[in-house]
């Protein structure tokens, strides 16, 4: 009985070991390549529990996620003979596990095989562009060009490069000062041109405004003189009409105005003849002569 139980335990243990050796799990972010005596047999893309022949088949697991590769800083000479220090990194994913296994075996080989391809594509793209294109004008276009070139060469490895980015594109330290000084001088020249254009435009606008002001003032002065002349004419006409209606009252009114203007409270002194016409209304309220024939008093000359 003990022998039977021992044999049963042995069978169960052997079955457990066989099941353990025959099963493998593929996670959601993985893909598997089943090898039979080292030769690729099938690719497993679906996640879950899968089976293989123990001792005969082995399994290599590859990542399905997007991975990245970072290259070393490279010195590149642009088409305008400016040297640049450039850092580039790429993101890729394994799309063909069988081809990837046959060419690279594992992910550790990607840097040594794909890295030079990225660097070569970067040199070709940046070497045919100017410094300004790399730094500002065509940076995005250049990264797309590098991506296309890398994908054309990288598809033989079962890889798809999904993105290439230029992290840094700087001048060597010994060249930065001269380039920055030249850029500063160029910006100052452009600023001076804009300032000169603005000054000229301001002078033109100011001259136009001054001319318009002069014309407006002259027109206003002319109009004012016309209105003043019309007013003087109307005033004289009114005075003439008033004088013709009552000459005595008009003479009296004008004499009162002459007294008001001539006899100011500031110690004014007159040397006049006693019979001067200026004081006729002081001697006779009706003026010189009979009533209704008064003489208008005038200030002494």
Distance between the termini: 167 Å
Shape: rod-shaped
SS strand fraction: 15-25%
Low-confidence stretches: 289-296
Helix % is 40-55%
Number of helices: 8
Report the sheet with the most strands, covering strand number, pairing sense and barrel closure.
4 strands, antiparallel
* Topology as a string of helices (H) and strands (E): HEEEEEEEEHHHHEHHH
* Total number of strands: 9
Radius of gyration: 56 Å
Structural class by sheet pairing and helices: alpha+beta
Average pLDDT, rounded to a whole number, is 80
How would you describe the overall organization of this protein?
The chain is an alpha+beta fold and 301 residues long. The protein has 8 helices and 9 strands. A hairpin with a 5-residue loop joins β7 and β8. Mean pLDDT is 80; it is low at 289-296.
